[in-house]
Amino acid sequence: MLSRKQFLNEIMIRGFRVLAPFGEASGESGADLRSDCQALTELSPSLLKIEAERLGIDPALVDEAELRRKVYAALSEQCR
């Protein structure tokens, strides 16, 4: 059985993999694709902090916007 954290992580990874070919086919850059994926996979503030800690990012050192950028960048790299 998967934990909630594992389940959400799997959904995000699969979602990025499904969306990546659409971004490539339309000629979008990686930054544009990450922006689109962020809008589709919005994490609540508490889930964002949990994911940041899992990735080794200290949420206390950055504001929420920077934290969100770092988490989505790291998740995007993991999906590739």
Distance between the termini: 26 Å
The unreliable regions are 32-40
Report the mean per-residue pLDDT as an integer: 77
Indicate the radius of gyration in whole angstroms: 13 Å
| Class by SSE composition | mainly alpha
Q: Tell me the quaternary state.
A: single chain
Q: What percentage of residues falls in helices of 4 or more residues?
A: over 70%
In total, how many beta strands?
0
**Largest sheet properties:** none
Number of helices: 4
SSE order: HHHH
Shape: globular
Strand fraction equals under 5%
Please outline what is shown here.
It contains four helices and no strands. The protein has helices at 4-25, 30-40, 45-55, 64-79.
Question: Would you give an account of this structure?
Answer:
By secondary structure, the chain is an all-alpha fold. 75% of the residues lie in helices and 0% in strands. The chain has 4 helices and no strands. It has helices at residues 4-25, 30-40, 45-55, 64-79. Helix 3 (45-55) packs across helix 4 (64-79). The model is unreliable at 32-40 (pLDDT under 50).
Features:
single chain, 80 residues, mainly alpha, 75% helix
Chart the SSEs and their pairings:
Blueprint: H1 4-25, H2 30-40, H3 45-55, H4 64-79
Helix pairs in contact: 1-2, 1-4, 3-4
